[in-house]
Amino acid sequence: MPRAAVAAAQETPAPLDAAAFYGQHCAACHGAARLGGMGPALLPESLERLRPQELAAVLRDGRPATQMAGFAGQLDAAGIDALAAWLRAAPAAAPDWSAADMAASRIVYHPAGSLPARPVFSADPANLFLVVEAGSHHVSVLDGDKLERIYRFRSRFALHGGPKFSHDGRYVFFASRDGWVSKFDLWNLTLAAEIRVGLNTRNLAVSDDGKWVLAGNTLPQTLVLLHAEDLAPARVYDVRGADGTASRVSAVYDAAPRASFIVALRDIPEVWEIPYGAAPAAAPPGRAFTPRVIALGEVLDDFFFDQRYLHILGASRNGHGQVIDLAQGRKVADLALSGMPHLGSGITWVRRGREVMASPNLKQGRISVIDMQSWQTVAEIATNGPGFFLRSHENTPYAWTDAMMSPRRDTLQVIDKDSLRVVASVTPSPGRTAAHVEFTRDGRYALVSVMEQDGAIVAYDAATLREVARIPMDKPVGKYNVFNKTTRSSGTSH
Ligand code: HEC
Asked: Whose CA is closest to 142, among 476, 491, 494, 487?
């Protein structure tokens, strides 16, 4: 090689052949086609929530206390960037997840009827909390009376959307980012069955009659209906709009009073309703499981339902809010909201004889309160900063909100539901993010997440606001009370 060429080669090393590097160093754990294996899936959809610096840091340094080692020894900064860019790009061959793949993935640990139909613990089974610990992918089960942990188990990688309970509270169903649906028997504290329904999943819903689970995917663009009993697939819906455009699913919901599932779609201006029962509000007999399409003026992907599921309050990506009458299948009002309302975290209560709905705002420090008959905004309550959650309970005069997306992320504000004023605040751990409140079944205690590694669940007396318990947790992103969820408390999301 001429001397000049040698010098040039030393200055500019050959660019990384990312595909080859992946095949050699990553495929054994993440799968040859990046669909996951012992490690998580590494498709662009899988990595959507990972910021660029976070992705580079994982590749360079790995993740402590996991099988994921860092590659700083083999790759320089440019190599890390090239590998990251390759992971962000779609694979040459479009990934597929067929009915056969799905069927082959299903595991039945305990067939229905094989375990005792009574709890193996003495705690009130209706006052249990499930806490999703995102840090190391675990779920804790808390006794809501004693405020103690009674069990902890490993979940699939990155649970998505809240866990959903069967109506009797015995079973809880989880969806994971990479498409796993898990059925857990809470009375026996053991997994009952699992199946992988897709490669990237948003969330799931469980029918009020306990027979069906519907999972909404973004990859492939499908809805998967499962028999709740053993997670056997019953039907796969391709999600396409009237003009044939394929769409990702943003979320699926159980509209219990209508005996139907409602499906929010991310890429097309439609809402789907899939009846699973014969309730009068649902489709005529014989139409069960056939989607009824409600055409919208624009894509709506953040939803709130009134308690009877007569209306959807929806927000578009630019924050425009509107009300859809579900029976009529059309828009009946616009909502005067600004910023980026987070309707999905809304709650309702009766104030001075009128039902009101309140929701936080992802871009502005305020809670909007809307009259549920006139659809007018009755108050805008100024808060410390943009927040994510709002929670209350039938038995407490207060609603609690966070300011998670602001410098005051460590403090929750307590709002009086009658005066609509902020009356108090709590700071569980100064400087550390506090958010997501859920009440015990009687509304006596409010449980707050310190949502960080080495975080905690902190329980407050909901009347005196005094701390009564603190339970260490690894990034507890959400907690779910069996009673409040199965009775569809108006103070929490369903
Ligand atoms: C020995 C198995 C193993 C090998 C080899 C491996 N990983 Fe991982 N990787 C894992 C595990 C397990 C995790 C999940 C860690 C956790 O719990 O956060 C992970 C996590 C990741 C994540 C973070 C994913 C997310 O959504 O948070 C990325 C990115 C990643 N690996 C990329 C790679 C790349 C690229 C290679 C090859 C250069 C590689 N890994 C090699 C096991 C492995």
From this structure: 476
